[in-house]
Amino acid sequence: MTPPAPPRTPMPPPELAVSPRIAELERDLASGAPDALPRFWAEVAGEGTPLVEPIAGDLDHRVVTFLWRDAGTRTSEVLLLANCVTDRSVLPQSRLTRIPGTDVWHRSYRMSGKWRGSYQFVALDEPFPDPPAVEDANSATTGHRMWRMLGLMAEPDPLNHRRLPARWGAPPRSVAELPDAPPQPWAAPRPGAPRGRVETHIVHSGHLGADRKVWAYLPPDHDPNVEYPILVLLDGDMWGDALPIQSTLDNLVAERRLPPLVAVMPDAVDNQTRWRDLGCHDPFLGFLRDDLLPWAARRWRVTDDPARTVIAGQSLGGLTALYAGLRAPERFGNLLAQSASVWWRPDGAGEPHWLAGQFAESAPLPLRIHLEVGTQEWILTPATRHLRNVLGDKGYDVSYAEHAGGHDYACWLGSLATGLITLTSGWA
């Protein structure tokens, strides 16, 4: 099965900028300063990358310079793969420039001071081919696959030690955040904070005809005699394993920003299975509703009240969270959708706002909904705003947020906590 793809809408090109630091280095090199290059790299090592510089008269933006150090003579091109900043459709702006005769490759952008995101580099022996001036469906698909293959060759920034783990054999990504990026106070473990525990289980699904691995979070001092709210968090292999959400839940509970709850996080298995299951797939919804939640209720005391049940997801997982509320409101009453793939529609054809149309055409349901999208998600941002307006016009209890970034776990990690706080506010 070939996974569907979002509409082929070219990415808006990022705004290029000139780095004062790079300009100074070039002047020093031109003047023959013998220590210019080692002094530059020593400063970079102390500050970390990317370089972030102010812009005179513009307090809302910064010059952000991505750097690659490569003394090898065979490297002919270095590409920046930055989430929702660069891609094949803006290839000229994705290419780093080498200062002749040095090991300095660089590319600078003017970016919002609130930006947070992940990125990688690809160093190539031969230049990556330019896309054709006029693309048809076949050439666009081929180019997209070639760009995705680059992602398997990419590597994180050796000069930046902040990493975002990946899954399914993909390389990790580097994380950057600018000075005004919103804090993520709940993500890191806190000394002395009571710790819950995470268990792994295997749950059989009659709907899927298969077993699924599930990560389960139990709050600190879990009491088997207490009935707990429940969170279903999709893409469990990320949140239960690669990018554990346990510290976030522990901290929120410790600060009384979230009631103690049980979280169940089903495995997405692999990319092809994920595309199938999280594409408004009724057998997967049946697994969540009829297999996973009853299994959790048999093992621990958890509520069957939809008003105290949250389903949360990102990207296709966000789409699934919204679909679960639409099709099973008797079980899922709180929907947390981060960068939901609301471009999706059955068979990849028809109404571009299919999900919004489903909500518009149905009677209002007893749902509480939190939507979030990145300002750089050029396809999803307008579609999510449209969905927000449709839900508001129907009278739904809907909250909405935008982050200065892209389609990125680096952003979702912090704002997942915000969504949970919002949806559970008022709970005892």
From TrEMBL:
The keyword Hydrolase applies. Keywords: Cytoplasm, Hydrolase. It is found in: Cytoplasm. One of its GO terms (molecular function) is iron ion binding. Coiled coil: none annotated. Residues 170-197 are annotated as: Disordered. One of its GO terms (biological process) is iron ion transport. SUPFAM superfamilies: alpha/beta-Hydrolases (SSF53474), E set domains (SSF81296). Residues 64-186 form the Enterochelin esterase N-terminal domain. Its main location: cytoplasm. The keyword Hydrolase applies. One of its GO terms (cellular component) is cytoplasm. Residues 180-192 have a biased composition (Pro residues). PANTHER family: ENTEROCHELIN ESTERASE-RELATED, IRON(III) ENTEROBACTIN ESTERASE. This is Enterochelin esterase. It comes from Streptoalloteichus hindustanus.
